[in-house]
Specification:
323 residues; Rhopdopsin 7-helix transmembrane proteins; three-stranded antiparallel sheet; 3 strands; 2% strand; globular
């Protein structure tokens, strides 16, 4: 087996091993919280949506890539290929959009207290589901051509000039114009939302700097605790955005090379797909490591599980002693 394929298989298997459990942990924890508490805070709701699309990305893209690298052929039919390409592209786009919404919402939370800012926060909170519905709709429309019209599982001849080779699927654009237009639209959408992330994150960093000075002068412990909670949430968002910006730079630099080059080596496409998927596996670890509410929920679940095991063990010992 080629070294490229070994590295590819190992990389995507690692993403599966880390990404699926981490994202499912966040997803299940917040679902349990919504059932027990009857509601979710807007930030928790956004993180739930982020973990959902992330786990779909890891599954739909990581498994086929790993299987292909291991030598498995004909993973999908044409219809399966269309579904896989469309689902991956839409969910990856929603991962970008959701991270942008998270950073913008956190930015709104940290705005100076005023009637206008309070109204803005209320409107965003009340319409958060509509915002995500709009984003889902836009991304689904954008990816209909590449997902359903141009995707297929096999080729009858060599790979055409204007095609994207995912090894388990092919996206065949009918001519150069459609190839360039699709690439430009995807890149513009990515840069738009990443730009919004960067602006919101820059504002958050400025607020964090001011809050750190304010905390040093605070004497009221309750006020200090409230500000610390806000700061912790803001820092977590900045970490997520910074992580995405780094991976976005690598991903889109590679993508721009792909759409401009006539022929692209498989290793280049593999690298782009891998870096495009890394965020979905690493971001949940950042969320778990920085979200105190989530950590407490997991700790309670762990303690509950330990108590059940202990009670079962004690009961078993008691029965054996009695007999």
């Amino acid at each position: 087996m080629e070294i490229r394929l070994i590295l590819k298989a190992a990389g995507f298997i690692l993403l599966l091993i880390t990404g699926i459990p981490a994202n499912l942990t966040i997803l299940i924890s917040f679902i349990c919280s919504s059932i027990s508490d009857k509601k979710l805070m807007p930030t928790d709701l956004i993180l739930t949506k982020l973990s959902f699309v992330n786990v779909i990305v890891v599954l739909v893209r990581g498994i086929p890539q790993a299987l292909t690298a291991l030598g498995v052929q004909k993973i999908f039919s044409d219809y399966g290929c269309k579904f896989a390409v469309f689902t991956y592209r839409v969910c990856r786009a929603m991962s970008i959009c959701t991270t942008a919404v998270l950073s913008i919402y956190q930015c709104i939370v940290l705005l100076p207290p005023s009637s206008k800012c309070k109204t803005l926060k209320q409107k965003v909170t009340q319409n958060i589901q509509l915002i995500f519905l709009f984003l889902w709709g836009i991304n689904c429309i954008i990816y209909i051509p590449a997902g359903f019209m141009y995707s297929q599982a096999e080729l009858n001849s060599s790979i055409p000039k204007y095609a994207l080779n995912f090894e388990f699927c092919f996206v065949l654009f009918p001519h150069e114009a459609s190839y360039r237009v699709n690439g430009t639209v995807y890149t513009f959408r990515d840069f738009l939302f990443v730009g919004l992330m960067a602006l919101a994150s820059s504002y958050i960093v400025a607020i964090l700097y001011k809050h750190n000075k304010k905390l040093q002068r605070m004497r009221n412990s309750e006020q200090k605790q409230g500000s610390t909670i806000e700061l912790r949430a803001a820092k977590a968002v900045v970490m997520l955005v910074t992580l995405y910006l780094v991976l976005f730079g690598v991903d889109n630099a590679t993508w721009m090379y792909i759409i401009m080059a006539a022929h692209v080596k498989p290793a280049v496409s593999d690298a782009r797909v891998f870096f495009a998927s890394v965020y979905t596996a690493v971001s949940p670890m950042v969320i778990i490591g920085t979200n105190k509410k989530l950590q407490q929920k997991l700790k309670c679940l762990s303690m509950s599980s330990d108590n059940k095991i202990t009670k079962t063990y004690i009961g078993t010992v008691a029965e054996n002693t009695a007999s």
